[in-house]
Design a protein that fits this description.
Number of helices: 12
Radius of gyration: 20 Å
Strand content: under 5%
Largest sheet: 2 strands, antiparallel
Structural class: mainly alpha
Distance between the termini: 24 Å
Strand order of the largest sheet: 1-2
Shape: globular
Length: 360
């Protein structure tokens, strides 16, 4: 538990202390956000606010993870390396998108295909490597079995290694792309994505710590133990991300002094997908990341219905903008979405724990 606190604390201090200096650097370079013209008019006042704050979240998380391993004298597990690769890799794609917006002075960055290709390259490398590196217990970081709380009987490999790898690459990349874009959609109000992510990764810290304390030991497997590789590394990274988000929220809360940008949202979404894969909670993640899911569903409904009927279901999508246009203050929308997210995360952790109790 001490290592978890160290990871969260180091990450928090790095982001909390470093972000003001990063803001000054961005202001000096005039690296400000460009606001979409079709959004709520109240957002036009945010034009020029420094962006790419996700750099601090990524750097703080890596710092927290590395320092904790050094202090505790432990060697990082392969799952930790892979999760950091996915986290930082998608953050780099987001950074290129943010920098493109700044360079061309517009709200559109990389082309959709460029982002998809970039996410695909990172995702394919991650999913291929996630099925390698068997440990002494025969476990790889990921499993080809679909999972809710633990690997199920439904194995997408169907007993054929080659087919299993291809299907897992497709499945894993779907999750990575879906969740990274979901967090990206959520990042539309001051503090919304940051606060939501703080809660989500806090929940995954609890789950991964619990799995670490109840990991299956070859030869003496206790009832309800978890066949998760490198669960301690997953807990450290989840805790470090939580600490980074808490610190970043200090500067990102309304009125935001800095935005996380796609650098942060894509990185956080990738880490969320990676944790769901490595902890074998791929479908439980739909509950834990409830607000992310609502934002995506609202956008899909809006686009789908409009293309079919030329009518809008919501005043504007994603969902948080709908409530803004109904007259809710931005802070009210954000806090209420945090409350909803806290309920979703609590329900997810509760289901996770109830399944463990049932297995005893």
């Amino acid at each position: 538990m001490l290592s978890i606190l160290i990871a969260a604390t180091v990450s928090f201090l790095f982001v909390f202390i470093g972000t003001p200096f990063f803001i000054k650097f961005l202001v000096a370079k005039q690296y400000g956000q460009f606001i979409r013209q079709d959004g709520p008019t109240s957002h036009l006042t945010k034009r020029g606010t420094p962006t790419m704050g996700g750099v601090m979240i990524v750097a703080g998380t890596i710092c927290g993870y590395v320092v904790t391993n050094i202090v505790s004298g432990r060697v990082p597990g392969v799952s930790g390396f892979l999760l950091i690769f996915l986290f930082a890799g998608l953050g780099f794609i987001g950074f290129l998108d943010d920098f493109s917006k700044i360079r061309h002075k517009q709200s559109e960055g990389l082309t959709p295909w460029a982002k998809i290709i970039g996410q695909g390259i990172i995702g394919i490398l991650f999913t291929v490597l996630a099925l390698q590196f068997r440990n002494s217990a025969g476990l790889t970081p990921a499993s080809t079995s679909l999972s809710f709380v633990r690997p199920s009987w439904l194995d997408i490999s169907f007993g054929v290694a080659g087919i299993g790898l291809v299907l897992f690459i497709l499945w894993g990349n779907f999750l990575i792309t879906a969740w990274s874009n979901a967090v990206n959609l959520t990042d539309g109000l001051d503090g919304l994505a940051t606060g939501t992510s703080m809660i989500v990764f806090g929940a995954y810290t609890v789950i991964s710590v619990w799995q670490s304390n109840h990991v299956c030991v070859p030869g003496s497997q206790a009832p309800g133990c978890y066949e998760v590789r490198d669960s301690r590394d997953l807990a450290l990274i989840a805790a470090a991300i939580t600490g980074a988000c808490i610190a970043f929220l200090w500067w990102n809360a309304s009125p935001a002094q800095i935005f996380m940008g796609d650098t942060g949202s894509l990185a956080l979404g990738g880490a969320f997908a990676g944790l769901s894969i490595f902890t074998h909670t791929e479908f439980l993640a739909l509950i834990i990341g409830g607000v992310y899911l609502l934002e995506v569903i609202s956008d899909v409904i809006q686009v789908g219905v409009y293309k079919a009927t030329h009518r809008r279901v919501f005043r504007m999508a994603p969902l948080h903008h709908h409530f803004e246009l109904l007259g809710w203050q931005e802070v009210t929308v954000v806090i209420r979405f945090w409350v909803i997210q806290a309920m979703c995360a609590s329900l997810g952790v509760g289901i996770f724990y109830a399944e463990w109790l049932a297995s005893q």
